[in-house]
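Two entries, shown back to back:
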Amino acid sequence: MFLDIIHSGEENHLLHYKGDLELTNHSAGSLTSEAVHKRWNRKNEILADAAERASTAAVWLGGPAYPRERLTDAWTLVLGGQFHDLMAGTATPKAYTYSWNDDVIALNQFAGVLTRAASAVASGLDTQVQGTPVVVYNQLNTEREDVVNATLNFSQGAPQAVRVFGPDGKEVPSQFEAGNGLGDVLFLAKVPSVGFAIYDVRSADAPSSMSTDLKVSESSLENARYRVSIDSNGDVSSIYDKKIKKELLSAPARLALQTEHPHDWPAWNMDWDDQKEPPRGYVSGPAQIRVVENGPVRVAVEVTRETEDSKFVQTIRLSAGDAGNRVEFGNVIDWMTKAAALKATFPLTASNPVATYNWGLGTIQRTNNDELKFEVASHQWFDLTDKSGDYGVTILSDCKTGSDKPDDNTLRLTLLYTPGLGTGNGRGYSDQTSQDWGHHEFIYGLASHAGNWTRGNTDWQAQRLNAPLIAFQSDSHPGTMGKSFSFLRINSDHVFVSAVKKAEESNDVIIRILEMRGERVPNLRIAFAGPAVAAREVNGQELPLGPATVVKGEVETSLEPYGIRTFAVKLASPAKTLPAVRWQAVDLKYDLATASQDGATAKTGFDAAGENLPADMLPTSLPYGAITFRLGPAWTDHANALVARGQSIALPPGNFNRVYILAAADGDQTGTFQLGQFAHDLKIQDWQGFIGQWDSRTWNIHRVEVPTPAEPAPSDHSYQAEMDRRIRRRIQERGPIVHTEMEYTGLTPGFIKRAPVAWYASHHHTAEGANEVYSYCYLYGYSLDIPDGATSLTLPDNDKIRIMAITVADQAGKLHPAQPLYDVLGGGKQ
């Protein structure tokens, strides 16, 4: 269509425009409204990318089949959440109860795919170490040194101290905090591009004594790069870059409260009349300040304050090594402030009327705020380089996209937005005056540079902030691939790999690359863990565009400034493959029918109310990582589940070391599963309902009659006069107009259930076979190690638990995440 328009006339007569094409007011608030949905959307994108890369590597190495259907289903939920009003933050409160659940299901699915793919790759690595093996995964296409934060389970109880050693056997800086058999370990790790590395966490009598130049007190933090000062109010009053010998702040960096009363469309809009005014106030004291981390890996100071009904806990952090090239601000905020935007304000010593904003596929330069441009978007970072060109500062953002620039030396990142009502049509959106009230956690940061941002590589600091290193605790086993593995690497730090996945219709590897700096990249080489034997260029739909060049097993190409290219690459078979997984389904004597067909009245149900799984959507074969579940036939009144009543299930003979259980329950239930002498308590989750919600508002609903406007003067043909005439006619013809006002009454705390979802459907059936639309149902995948000598699995004695399938496996390697792969709500650890 666009090309048709371009070619419909003389091209030299068409206007050329460089810059934003923005909706001036009507979208400014939308950059921030409904912050948690925006956060979970971004976290899903990052986690999906990590899962796709790890799965692609695992498949090439001979691991389990690529989980295309599971990834596609999860992506479908994510894309649904990008619908106009949902992602804009302007949908009704009820709509978000559904989209939050979709977000959490997708996070659950991507996390499961990543864990199973990482387990497959790790099964080929040598995890034999003296202490506890930790597998660290880096999804970015750059070798990096960053901080790993891992919570480890020590079988003999948490030691009093640990020391950590890298794949090369050399010690790395670490610090440790123990509690209840678990231990939180921080250590510095170097991990190759799109790769894995094995680290050894050893019990020790004394902590690491390695020196990394970190210092901390209640009023200052310092590392090799920065010296940060904190004033008595709890604000960062100075950031001095020792490398470029520059003070970065001209005044304290503060959390500002900007009054927001848009005339119309409160969640959509911000108004220039509000933006041109100074903040009405700042988050202020009295501040409770304490040192919360003090080690050779990271130092941190926590500042707690309360202002305008909200509580702010901010943790300023500096790390050692290359991770210390950024200052991080962790934020935990319980937000209840009215008619305000919360903005992280950075008054800089650098000054320039123009700043640079990252667009993901390029950058754009913008000037200071004006009446047509006062709240603008960016992805992950924006930068102010001094007009001298000598130095500058890049603001790094985690899931925040709104910002503004009130003057030559100030950048502001918009964190939260709860509008008040103006005098226009906002009266119909009373619920939006409490939007985003609740609990928020996020990070933003700062990285300085000599010259401009391209010279300082601060764009990579933003990538690293958004996609931290991921740690998994492993068992100990030999492996032919050594102690590290990199799936791909690129010979330019100007190029970002935005996607790595298996092709939709072949066994090729799809890789999408883009140039990040606005500079041409000639002689670009893309290398994989094995040689490329053929390649072709494709478009975003993976349709062919033409041949690609392969030289000595590497794809050779070039990129124009901000160019983007996609290749389908055929790789040679790996020299070393992963150990095969052997599995066998266990025959079960089903005794309960839990599925029904559309419109069919069922004699029994999954639950006590007689409601059922939808038979038309329930598979008989369900791939789950390296194994497959075999389910019973799903039709009305046909038994396809085993009710847990303490039965003993004989395990198939053979050397199987793991049992997988597909189950769900009528209400969340705890059950004890016995394998040999070992008892395992599992929480079997409810088969229906939400598995995740953010803090939900509760309401009193009021119906209010809209006043009849006065009759306009006959000579008045203004927009408002014509609108008043239409309203008067409407009332005369149909009676009074009534609108709904929602009176806020409180918050129901959010929660996220953690069990891995093995299967879900978008609806379930009533006892009469009717579809309960958008009322999800689930089956969950649980796994347990089979101890030596165990020949049977004893089920819990709890008749609310339904077992749908059991599979045993002989499987090398076992990983579990040593940190949450997505948010924890309900009192858990973030």
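entry 2 starts here
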Amino acid sequence: MSGVRIVKKDYTVLLRADGTMAELSDRPNPTANWISSHSSSRFGAPFVNGSQLNETFVQCKEAHIWPVRPTIWEACKHRIPFPGRPEEEASRENTAEDERSVSELYRFASKSGRTSVSYRFADDHIEMTAMLPDECGPRAGMELDFHFIDMPTGDHWTNQVALNTIYTDERQQYAYFIFQRPSGGFLCLAVDGPFAAWRAKYNNSGHKMTGMQLLSLADDLLITDERKLNRVHTMRIKIAFAETLEQAYLNICKLLGIGMAQFAVSGGIRQSVVPIRVVGHADRLRIFDPEGKSEEAEFAGDAHSLALNKIGEYRLSAISPNGRVHVSRMLCHDAWDKQFDLINRFYSKYFQLESGAFARVIWKDTLSPKQGRTFGGEAFGDAEEQVSCRTGEFGGFAGWAILKNLLWFGSKSEFHALFRDSVDRYIRGWALNENRPDRPNYGTISKKPVSMFGINYSAYHLFQEYNYPQYETWLIGQLIDYYELSGDRNILNDLIGLGKHYIADHIDPATGMAVCQNERYGEKVDYTTVDVPLVHLTKLGKLLQREGHPDSDLFLQAALRMAYHLSGRGLEFPTEGDPCTEEASMACTALSLLYAYHELEANETFLRQGADLLEFHDALEMKGFDCRMTGSTLRYWETQYETRDWGPSINAGHGWAIWTAEAKLLLFLATAEMKWMVEACNAFVANMRKVEENGGMTCSFAPDMIPATPHMPYERSESEEPDLLATSIPLANGYPAKTYSASGNYYLIKAAEYWNRISGLKMEEGIAINGRYTADGIFESLGDRFDILGLSRTPHVPLYVRVRPGRILTIMFESKDREVQITGGTIVDSGPSKIVVLPDSDVLTIQ
């Protein structure tokens, strides 16, 4: 490709004759391109007269600047490959003298001169300046075609790019973004000055990010609050590179002249103290509590501690000498019993229908699912519609969360009777059709064989339901919990029937793969990691093993075959949507393998592969210092199915982030590395942040300013709704305004399985995870069945831990740097990284 190659200390650029970049690589990985090498890519191209669907790109060419110098094409002619001359031969003519002859400043302008792009190439960063006319709307800006994962360039996804750190100043005075490669490395992009908006571009289904734009004009957006968008002539972008995330943040501070408040965990229980450090160029730190009251924080050097005393979001404003304010966000949350009661009451009151089903979504203004449909035609809560209140998934998560409340807290809750009635109606009246066995509801258990789409299914298939087998495995998990609650042997029989049907109709006997096949002769799609069927079958097998049932091995062996199938699948991650490298499939693969390692077979390959997958998955996890996003997974398409607001946009704080959190907690249990517990905690906090005061919650937070267009037709209801197609796009960058979703309950379900038992302490920083120190200095877990304590190292001063006499406590050390002494209990077992203690008092002393 014709162009001039610019080589600097930290990076190499190939600049085209029209001023766009064809290649951008950093020093540690010079063969991997940060920007798309696709023939249609336009990284750095200015455009005008843009809309949601298309743009008019302005043709630029090199413009002379002062002082007058030879054009870059004359100065670098030895690096231009000529027709009939191999590029490799031309590249051999490059010399150090040639490289030095390249000026550091280039300007490319349109014929009229009203539009231009300028570059300045420093050793450690790039500066780009775009000048655009302000009357060429509705949108104008710059195209930034990064080499996003799944772009059709022929490169493996591990060398492509994910956008996982996003910061947008509230008045669009600056912004920054950090991009990461799964194979390693970070690119920092800073918008150094005012802009109108930014936008991620998606494919039609929303499953793939295809580009990015920085806008100087965005006059076609629907804005429902008091926010105003800038109109600017000039936008400035700076780009730098880093090998670590910590260095990336320091680069951002340097490029923008800002400071930022940083923390390891993005939230904590009320009355806990969280350590903070301030990095960069901040000279003041102002803290705003959830009520908006502020105080100036004193900090020595970069250290500070934040006392969380009020439920809600704390805003930490780092104020820099240049006047810029960087806001970090941290959540103070309530204890688990308070969270469960608040949310369970809301969902049992407003989401549960007469049938016992739970609606998938309800309107915020009416607190009702009536007369509403999501994109794709899914009804909000009509029990007679096939895709409305699916058993197991979506609405089923609301019922499952209430069930977990009953198991965790028993009769302690003052709403115990209400919750028990709600769960009974969901499981017995809806899912199992106990009152109408011959007329099952759509998507509920049919205890007779059924035929759909020319395919015959055995008894216990979901009635008239597409072959989406994840609904059945979720229901297995729910029925296991309901059997524990009720002790009803009929439920155990239903479990066995559902499990045997799943194995017979949905597992390939040759490979162990879970199969989805929606047409008689259609393709068998791999659904082994659409949810985690391995986990549910393992739990069912273990339950039957405890019951002494002869079928236990049937389910355990099926789960083990799944583990070997996933182990052999490598770095391929099929998904139920548009084929892509889906983070959830990756996370569920890691989760399944690590669960199999703990519960089925201590196979070191399972452990190694699970850990490797989580390392790759790190690039697909949202970073930064914002409790709405930190620890979330990078997904783009859920909003259009779970809200009445937007099309595809980044789903921060979505319940599916918990799959990754689960996998990290399992990896912590295998390795004792505290980083996995800390990161898992952040994913749960991001889910907690979306819960509102009444107990309702949206499906996620969207950091996008401009969401994508929904790919399904918008179906109008009787209420007046704006046109959400290409003619009018809403400004997002917040929580959906119109609807509450049932899927958010998923974080409660998994909290009951992990945080009921596990707590930890990062001793060096004084960070408490799922716990807090009491006024008398005793560490107290938030788990009712607390039996695992993670410590980053041996305490250097006595650590006092609240325990329950007679309940075994396993203490796991990431680094046990000296002999450990235990007072208040007896050591019954020990290993290289753990000590098992039987407490004989209610306080254990570790030193």
